[in-house]
Write a structure and sequence with these properties.
single chain, Thiol Ester Dehydrase, Chain A, about 150 residues, alpha+beta, six-stranded antiparallel beta sheet, about 40% strand, globular
Length: about 150
């Protein structure tokens, strides 16, 4: 059982996400990379984090995995927000386009994910990673498998 479903057992996906936000808890990946789920709505999820040396690659900039993790989280939780209590999901594909490099000087960033379509077995979502001034750092599209638990 995931941390989100553990906190919101018996609730639909959106209620689970909102209960998770209210709990103030973080999964290990969010602790390691210092980011949080900050908002959830119908077909929408947003994560925020502050990139820094903890996420640097050997070249002295934020590793692409940091970008991808926030974008994958936003796409996945956007889909999660539309699921019933009996459904789950997993990412099948994530395509990331990197638009601009990040460093610790970038400041807080926000990944916003939205469901494009949700079928019985497959969902499609997209996300953007922006700084506080609205500059685009990366974008992603995701294909997700929806399943009954």
């Amino acid at each position: 059982m995931s941390m989100v479903t553990e906190i919101g057992a018996g609730l639909d996906g959106l209620a689970q996400l909102r209960a998770f936000i209210a709990s103030g808890r973080r999964p290990g990946i969010a602790d390691a990379l210092d980011f949080d789920l900050v908002d959830a709505g119908d077909g929408f999820a947003a994560f925020e984090g502050t990139p820094g040396p903890h996420a640097y690659n050997p070249m002295g900039a934020v590793h692409g995995g940091y970008f991808a993790t926030l974008l994958d989280s936003a796409c996945g939780c956007a889909v999660h927000s539309r699921l019933t209590a009996a459904q789950g999901y997993t990412s099948l594909e994530l395509k990331v386009a990197f638009h601009k490099a990040m460093t610790q000087d970038t400041g807080r960033v926000r990944a916003e994910g939205r469901v494009r379509t949700l079928g019985r077995r497959v969902a499609f979502a997209e996300a953007s990673l922006l700084d506080a001034q609205g500059r685009l750092y990366a974008s992603a599209t995701s294909t997700l498998l929806v399943f009954e638990r």
